[in-house]
Structure formats: C-alpha cells, structure tokens
Amino acid sequence: MFTYIVVLADRFEETERLRYIDLMRNSETQKRYFVKIMIVGKQSVGKTCLLRNLLKEDIKDVSSTDGIHIVIHRSKINIENGKWIIEKDRPKPKKSRDSIELHSMDNSKQLIMPSDLKSSDLFTATSISKRPSKNYARCGLWDFAGQKEFYCTHQAFLTSSAIYLVVADMKTNFVTEQQKKDTTEDDISSLSDFQEEDYVGFWFDSIHCYRTVDRRTDEESMNPPVIVVLTGKDRIGKNKLQGRQKYLDDQFSQLHGEQEKYQHYRHKYFISNTKDPDKIFEKIRKKISEIAQNMPLWGKSVPLKWILLEHLINVNRDNGKHFISFNDMIKMAKQPEIGILDKGEVSTFLHFQHEVGNIIFFKDIPDLIIIEPQWLANAFRCLVSDRFKIDDVHDVSPIDKRQISTDWTLLNNKGEISDLLINTLFKLKGGDYFLKQKKQLLEVMKKFDILVQIEGENVYIMPSMFPPSSISTVCMDIGIVKANCKTSWFCMKFKFLPPSFFSHLLVWLMNNYRPTRVKSGFALYRGICVFDLDSSRCEKLLMTMSIDTIALQIVSFSKQTQDLLEVCSGVRKDTRRKIVNLKKRYGIDLSYEQMFKCSDCTCHTEAFSLKQLIENTRNYCSHHQEAHESATIYSPWKVESTEGHIEKGMSKKHSQILQTCSEHMLENLYNVDMICEYLEVDDILTEEIRDTIKHKNGRQEQTKELLSILPFKGEKSYERFIEALKITENKNVAHYLEQQVGSTG
C-alpha cells in the first residue's frame, strides 16, 4: 500500500509523511501511471531528431534546442500491451518553436472548474491530452539542450522518476578515460575541459546521483534506467559498421561490470535519424514501455482525489495555464468531486507533485506554483542562453542601450547581471509576460542557486558565468604568499560532482561570509572563491572545486596556525553538514572521501586520505619531495578518531532505551542514511561503518544495523543520535525516545 512512501518518504517532511500514511489508510485510492522520458547528451548529436522520430514527426526543420523542449500529452502507452498511441491529427506548426512559445505564454485564461468532473467531456473526449484512463499511461518527453551553459538549469528538472535516453555519436570513443587539456599545475579543471568522449560518462554520473536509495541487494540493475542511443549510423561506411558496433558492444559489456554507475544501463541502439524506417524507432518505444512497467512508481496507488486534482491541473495546463497561486489550488481542491478542504493536505499533494516532477512548488513562494515546466524552462533560457544581440534591443534610449551592452559584457566577464539586463533579456525573449512574474521567477532561480544576490549589492551573480582563473593568480591578487599563515588543505574527493554543486556551496558560504574584494571586483571565479571570515578581513577562506574535489584552506594575516584550530574545525563540520542538507534538498546521492594536503600543495593535486595519515606518523610529500609529520597535515582541522569513543561506550540507561524502543524505530524511522551521515560528521561513525549500514537491504535492516552499533560509540553517541533525528524529519521518534528517558528517571 505504501510504495510511494518507500520510494519518496525521505523527501517528505515528517508531518506530510504522517498525513500521507493516514490518507492511504482512510481514503479511496487508484493506481497512477505516468512515464517521463529524458533525452540528454552532448550538443548536436541528434537528440531533437530522436524525439521527433519517436513521435513520428518530420525532422526537416530541426534546429538546436535552446534550453529544454518538453512534449507532454502527445502520446500515451497502453499498459496492457505497451503500444504507444501518438496523436496524429495535431496541426503542423507554421512558425518556429520560439515564435510559438512566445505567443502561447498568456496565462490570463480563467481556471477551468467543471461542475461534474468524472463524467464531463474532459474525461470522455477523444484527444490524447484530455482522456485519462486506467488502461493508458500518460507520457512526457523532455529534450535537454546539450550546450554546457544550460547544465546549471537542468538540475531543476532532473529526477529519479524517469527513463533516460543518453544520446551520443557512434564515431565518439565515449567510454575512454577523460583526457585533460594542456593546463598549468594549478589550473582548476571543470566541465569546460571536457573532451568529446567525456559526455556519456558525465551523464551516467549525473543520473547516478538520482539513484534509488532503497535499492535491493539482489537487483542486477539500478534506477533510474538508462537507454543509450548511438546516432550517425549512416555516416559510417557499410564495411566498417559491423566492426564499429562490435567494438562499442564490447566496451559496454566491460564497463557494466566495472563501474557502479553503468548499472543504470539497460539497452543500446545504433540508429540513423535520417535513414532508418519507423520499425527501428518502434523497437525503442517498445523497450521504453517494457522498462516503464518495472519502475518503482509505476501503477502504485495514491488517493483517488489526488488523481482527480492532478487531472484538473493537467486540464488547466492544456488550456494554456502555466502557473497558479496557492489560493487557486485551494479553489481547485474544493471542487465537489475532489473535496480536499484541508490546506495541509493540499500542501502535501503539491509536494508530492513536485517530487515526481509534474510541477515546481516551493512553500515560501505560494504565488507561483508552476504547472507548465516548459514555461519555467523558457524563463531560464532568457537569462542563460548566449543567443543575444544588442541590435535586437529596440525601444530604449541610446544611453540605456550602451549600458545594456556594457552589462552584457560584465555578465560574460564576471558573472554579474544587472537588473536592467534582466529586464532586457526577459522582455526580448518573452515580451512583457515574464516581467510580470519577475519577482517570483527570480526567487525560483535563487532557490536553484542559478542566481545569487550579495547583501548590499545592486546586482545578481550567476555562478555558471564566472570567469576562469588559477589558484596562483587568485592568491597573488589577494596577497597570499608563503610568508602568510596558511593551513593545510582539507579536501572532499567525490566519485562525481554535479556542475551545480559549486553554486550550492557558494550560496551557502555567501550567506555566512562576505566574498573577498580584489581590484577587479569580488574574488569569485570558475571553481575558485575567497571569503572574509569576519569584518577584520584578516582571516580568509579559500574554496576550490574541480571535476571531483572540493578543497578548503584558511589563510590568516594575523594569527598562527594553532590559533585557527576552532575556526578550521567549525568550517569543516559546517561544510560537511551542509553537504548532507544539500543532498536531501535536491534529492541527490553523493559520496566522498576526506583527504588532506600540506599548505603549499596546489589544491587539486594528489592528497593523503585520512586513514593513511592516521595509520602512518609520517608521509612522503611528492610536492616538497620530503616527508611530513601526518599530524601537522590533519590536526589543524581538529579531526577526531572514532576509536576513542569505544573506551567508555554509551551509558547503560541510554543503551537500554534504544533496545526497548527498537521495534518502534524499525516501524517509524526514515532517512537512515542521512542520520548516519550526521553521525559521521560528528565523528561518531566512520565512513566504513556508514557505508556498511547504507548497503543493508532496506530501511528496516539499516535501522537494525545502526541500533546494534550505536551503544559502542561513546557517551556522546546518544545525544548526537537524538540531534540527528530532529534534523532528519524524525522529530516524533526523537520525542518518543526523550519520553522514555523521562520515564526511567
């Protein structure tokens, strides 16, 4: 009954989770069928042509996708035989896509509120877009732009509840190791350094971040599933085609067993978008249908009134509505056949719809519930796309036009975007329409950290547009030389880092510290930023991010290293806690290893693992070509060994409480992996122990393992466990345990 809770429970607030369980127990339910297909890959590999071929459309007028192109309600899938039904009678567009989008953005139409929802024409019409049925699944196809400048916006739409088509050119050796361009030793590598062959691995990594956390150990594959589509078959000579296909087959067979991320892989196809008959694309449709029926959320029950309210949203979307307010949603929910009168339930429904990717909803932006994702993608495109010409700007004074040109240069050189330029880009690409919702749209962009505002400044900052630099240049600009007091580097080496993660951490740091000023502006660059830790500006925090590593160093112009111990400890723990929060907020699963380097090493060169430093009192530094005392490298960051906790263990009273309440926790504890992460940050658990718990088979088995370990992890372990429960939406469980403490005296 509670399959949605198993899959999405960790993403719900505790009150919403409990409300959902109560609804499922006490209201009528119905199975929900929907499949979302995400088409991703490098620019100009045939993604849009593939989309059109799947929908049996002409590909003659295809142009490069600018942002994201979303097609919903054009097709549906028969859940009994997997056949696609495609709307064939749709009139052919006479204008370009951009023109159609700009002329279809009027949101002024009234809400459609049928008096008899179940029996109205809206439920019996023959159009695919207006015919919900228990026998068919709705189908949505998303075509993502391959240009790198759009990758910062893709995060708003990626989800674990989708099937991904990763598209690549057959000529590309896309599974080779990443090749670095010629760079100096202190350059920061980033997405811009990608070679042609890096993109398939990049997308597998990106998708792997959204993997299903509650994966069963006996499953051979991971969700979300990936189908690889290799295009350009017609451009390979017939005498070489068979050999090329075999070569790529062998590479995928090898990779599937070597790297966990390739366990998302299900199948691959070699196609020609221009030459292949429809029967080739029918095979892809059939495979998509087959995979969809094994997705975790396929055909799972939800409250019937939620099905009706979701359909009412879809009906209004089809009628031209792109966004509504919370008050509009309250009115829709009160429709007699839906009958949702509780605002809390409406909020839970909206959260659910947001998590499955049907809408964009934030509680603190109630006046902008986005029910048409294409509209938001178009708004993002206004500011992110590089398709701008000053000659296209009309109806402004010569002075304003010169200022707009200057501001556009500033955006491209420093990542700063003025209010005037925002207004210009919104108006140029959306008329006055986006300007009317400008305040709410900017708030949404700030939610995704696409835009940032520095307190007291009259410009926004767009991290994806930061200029490149090197660590040596940045240090020279600030005056950081060897004579200054520098701590060692604390590094977090990830298996993979999404491009947007730098922005997320940057925004958090900007909310706590002020960016350092240099002659050219703020010390904010692509992959490098510097902050003042206090108003004296004597202590500074350097953060760098490369392809797989985030590195932190503290520099002081007034103190010795030993005086920075508390500062370093606080920065390290706060950063690690923030990473846990970000993973929950964006529904991504990332893992990293703590690493350390001596102060003069470049920030992305070879580092020592914490385990290596603890096991060896001295370690050889290849940068200095001499041995360093291990303690001098990791001790500034106040790293504690969890082995010290074992000497005393948890108090007998607390240990008994955990044992007495174990059944209650097995039933009611969620976010177990996140609880373990917080305990690791607090040096209660080791990375190895947390990893062991994470790979247990399901939530309850993870809880059992955690409860068996905690009593042996020191006097502070119980207190830290209670704190972790409160942070991870387990307040009721924490309260239950605290009551037991009170009752036992």
UniProtKB/TrEMBL annotation:
Domain CARD, which positions?
A: 650-740
Secretion signal, residue range per the UniProt entry: none
Q: Is the keyword Zinc assigned to this protein?
A: yes
Q: Where is the SWIM-type domain?
A: 586-632
User: One MF term in GO for this entry?
Assistant: zinc ion binding
Listed under GO biological process in this entry are: regulation of apoptotic process
Which keywords are on file for this protein?
Metal-binding, Repeat, Zinc, Zinc-finger
Q: What is this protein called?
A: CARD domain-containing protein
